[in-house]
Structure of Helicase XPB/Ssl2 N-terminal domain-containing protein:
Amino acid sequence: MPADTGRGDTGHGDGGPRDTGPWDGGHGNRGRAVPRTLAEELRTRPDDALAALLRARPDLLSPVPNDLTQLATRAGTRASVVRAVERLDRFALQTAEALAVAPDPCPYEALRDLLTGDEGAEEAGGEGDARGAEEAEGAGAALQGPGNASPASPLGPASPAGPASGTAALGAEERAAIAAELPRAVATLRDQALVWGGDDRLRLVRTARELLAPSPTSPSPTGLGPTVQEATSGMSPGRLQELLASAGLPPTHDPVTAVAALAELFQDRARMAALLGGAPTGAATVLAKLTWGPPYGEVSVASPTPPVGWLLDRGLLLPSGPRNVVLPREVALHLRHGRAHRAPEPLAPPLSPTAEYDPQAVDNTAAGQTFTALATVEELLGQWENAGPPVLRAGGLSVRDLKRAAVALDVSEPVAAFWIELAYAAGLVASDGETDERYAPTPAYDDWLRLPAEERWARLAAAWLPATRTAGLVGGRDNRGRTLAALGPDLDRSPAPEVRRRVLELLATLPPGAAAVPEVLLNRLRWERPTSHRGAPAAAAAGAAPGATSPTWGAPSAASPSREDLRSRLARWAVAEAEMLGITGRGALSSHGRALLEPHPDEPPAARIDTASAHAARLLAPLLPEPLDHVLLQADLTAVAPGPLERPLAETLGILADVESKGGATVYRFTPESVRRALDAGRTADDVHTFLAAHSRTPVPQPLTYLVNDVARKHGRLRIGAASAYLRCDDDALLAEILADRRSAGLRLRRLAPTVLAAQAPPDTLLEGLRAMGYAPAAESAEGDVLVSRPEAQRTPPRTPPVPVPEGPPVADATLLGAAVRAIRAGDLAATAPHKPAAAAEARPEAASGSQPGAGAGAGSTATGDRLPRTTSADTLATMQAAALTGSNVWIGYVNANGAASQRVIAPVRVEGGFVTAYDHTADEVRTYPLHRITGAAELAEDAT
């Protein structure tokens, strides 16, 4: 339950994180014992707070921790902390970064001042700080900063704002927004177990502090450098004495005291103002260059210019190398008037619609796109079922075959790659697994074709939303410089499903019919997950030292795209793909697109997307046009389909004519080759005439009738068989004409009889050769019957769709979270609860001398170094029987068949036959344990039950 901090409304704007407060972790815990560790604070959390932690950080559940101490330890590991930090929004991250540069522990008020700054100091310091802008520009040459300019060029003069250049004092509204949102940010960090302690003693977990605190090898977005203590580490006592003397501080021979005196001076605003008031010309300009970062500059420490030398003598700059200096953190905070961040961002960028349309028009546009999507997938796989492209040796589709698919679909190559990958994700296409491996439709494709249009679309949408394969990467390069191929390996990107869903969720927050450009969505996504969008420029601007490396979530090497680039591109691709798939129309989310996002919490996780897509299909069905059973034949040998055609009509027309253009209406063109294709498939001229007359709303044009009759008259006049092959014809003049044609030389023909020619080429080659010469031969069987040359549709063996590659462990459902919390609670009870002395231990108190009160084995009980209770078999049996009679809980040590030891809290129900049947609080179920595997037993103390 959120704590009432009394600092204003902590609610968040639309689309932002949920407002959660501490569970007695703030002011509400006064009067209770102050937790000394994260594990102790976790013990004070209610079960729903622990479940929220495990839901937010699912990696903590792999495997389920034995107790809360193990949970706290796992929550502090570097890998887990990095994942948690990457899930923070910008203001929560800025709050954590401020805590990383604050004293440990940090009061809430001090944290607030780090984010809002010292209002009085900013107002008073503006006039004095402006003095740096009036100083000579030549002083800027005294210092060169690696982050703002090249080492060979001097930094320019400070801007008119002086040392705090580039940032004006925060206004009253900005301060109020920070104060209002800070409780939410702190609560978020507490919920994620990144911060613990009351509001008077906020502590950032050690690993998070190490990640976020600035250091020469890990720059911080705050732009702050190391503390005086860190920067003077290794400095000689004599040099420290010189710094004290120059700063007007009393001498001391203790280096620790000397460093503390310098830090105290730099944190005293009045004394620092007096010290800087005596600075020579140019010193303020030098400080201005380093105030907001980078805190490192290049200068000759051995022979500095007068302004730099004055600063070095007083510790206002400290050497970090032979040619490098650093601005201590305490000095920078004074110059910043106490602010850790130049521009805190407590509120998420607003989602402003860039256009608004009629919601019905949006739905109709999206429905039209769904029809196009279905037709495109059908056309693609219809081509691949006859002659699928080969699989590359390394896996995937060749560039040439991708281009062919793009030309056939009349789309660009990236769009063709999207449709290919979508069909693969839906399980409609796969490799056939043969020796000469090729891609072909799967048996699931035939099942998909038999579904209604809205259900076919739902299958595609349900495959797209959780898919980790990213078609937008096709054509790019991997880390080794190899081209990424469609259907190839290395296309999985774990953040893709999350980014897709979040883009749609942001669109869903807009009013129906409202659209937003990708830049607006990207700004919100960058605020929600800033570390996942942080790249090299941001890291450099944050204050990287020379030779510094980026943090875990920073910019990778130049060999691979930065995660900022990836997530930004994923968002842009999601917008484009949703439009092509018909989830959005005109950039706005459709009604059936909104249905895809419905949570359905009562459903199992695997079934939620299916339930949502089924609901979306029901909303889409009324928007789709009814399939037509007719076309419009025209005199120019074309047929116009004014809408989607019924499947049998579309299939037959696709054989009889070629698609000339697509759009609102599809135009088919009849050619001699297309008519011959229908005749080769076994249809006669009468069949073609009957089909055209039955399905045309206009009379069959005379030119089309003549075309069909002419092709049919020529079709089959030439007959081909196997000699290797033979060619026969009743017209010997036609055979003589073929023999005389130079183009037939490659067929190596010779006359066997006046009406028969023999060929050394195979029948298929002879067929293709004669067709290329302009003839219309027909193949025949050994009995002289015409062979129907219908292409055989290829299918792969049954294949399963590709499994998405998740980003870390999956989020557990409520049932699993509840069971995990109960198991952790029970394990923690077994590990920490005080126990009654065992009978054997009372008789032999020396056996219990190794146990320590409160260490898990109660006073007087026998425990080894692994904290398992040790009692004799007789004592164990007696304890179990007594507990079964009284219904009390018992703490036991148990060794399973594999030799693994564990401690458990059980409630014995029955003891007989060498076994004890009990309710196991740790496993949350009734179990039966062999007594000989129980190392010992002790009743829990009454205050522990």
Remarks:
- The radius of gyration is 39 Å.
- Residues 356-548+561-623 form one domain.
- The mean pLDDT is 81.
